Queue: 4 jobs
Job 1
Amino acid sequence: QVQLVESGGGLVQAGGSLRLSCAVSGIFGSINGMGWYRQAPGKPRELVAAITNFGSTNYADSVKGRFTISRDDVKRAVYLQMNSLKPEDTAVYYCTVSRFSVGVGGWWGQGTQVTVSS
């Protein structure tokens, strides 16, 4: 059974930091794309950050310079370090992995809530 389990969400004041983790299990073989999406109330889900198995990264313009994505292929995990958080970062954050590029098929976690207070 494939499982993606996110952790690390919570409530933080503006300017603070959080580190999201996503542990992947039940997938055999290579995983190329790993990433994080987020969805705020009343808004569509958007890509926050993605990383390939070669270590190439891609970030939404709104988080560049504040967020850092990383992965550990031995542990089968992906992380999102979020610094200088803003109220507009408030959303449910979803982990996703794919044998191809992030967002192309693949598997999703259940989401973790991040709330940034002003």
Job 2
Amino acid sequence: QVQLVESGGGLAQPGGSLRLSCAASGSRFVLNTMGWYRQAPGKQRDKVASITSDGHTLYDDSTQGRFTISRDNTKSTVYLQMNSLKPEDTAVYYCYRVDVDGTSHYTYWGQGTQVTVSS
């Protein structure tokens, strides 16, 4: 069973920075995508950023230029460096992983980590 363990959330001031980490274990698939979604109170879960196993990245327009996603395949870990944080970035951030096995896709989620941006 694949497990995703997130860390690094917390409280930051507007304009500040936080770095989220998500370590995956139990997967045997090399071809995969990892990334982050976030969900603010009363809102739907929205995609933040993703990165494939060969390093291709995608960002939501709201985070482009402020957030940077990266990964260390030797540690099966994905990171989200969040700079220039805004109050509207406040949300629970969920790590996810999609393993690809031919035409089959398997999606796994972390438990979520709270990010609060407030002065």
Job 3
Amino acid sequence: QVQLQESGPGLVKPSQTLSLTCTVSGGSIINNYYYWSWTRQPPGKGLEWMGAITSSGSTYYSPSLKSRTSISRDTSKNQFTLQLNSVTPEDTALYYCARLQSTNLVRDYWGQGTQVTVSS
């Protein structure tokens, strides 16, 4: 059974960098069949895909967030990390990591989500 768990600070000050880690168990992040993604949901709004990292380490980002987003990985820890720079209160959201099937980009396993609030 694949499990994903987000971790990171729940409160970030405006203009700072938000950094979250997703720890994966029950499956390897270098498995060619899967990508690993970040998605967020601001309060009262729908899901917003942020980006993904492939089994080989290639990255893809939402055009609207590309200038501020970076996704990296630590294969020795089976973790991947999201960094979002220059945050504003509009970045307040529930942040999820998820596994995507590489063939159809369906998200088949999700973390439970972690709330991040941007406030001074």
Job 4
Amino acid sequence: QVQLVESGGGLVQSGGSLGLSCAASGSIYSINVMGWYRQGPGKQRELVAAVTNSGSTNYTDSVKGRFSISRDHAKNMVSLQMNNLKPEDTAVYYCYAILISTMTPRVEFWGQGTQVTVSS
């Protein structure tokens, strides 16, 4: 099958920086989109940033200018650099990918999530 494994996250003070990485592995034929969602306490899951296989990126308005998403196609990895973090960025961050698998018709896959906590 397909696995998405996240790394990074943790606790940081307001104004600080953190990086997240996600590696996709398994029965992957091609990956169309990789990105990150987050779900804060008492909030709905929201898209943070995404990058297509052509390099197009999309960011939610609240992180524009502070977060940067990048992708390593050769390694099937996506990274999210988060700068000038704010307490409202506190959330569980989930890696996701829309891909074509050689083993299943399923196209959307998720990581287990990693906690990011920003203290004021």
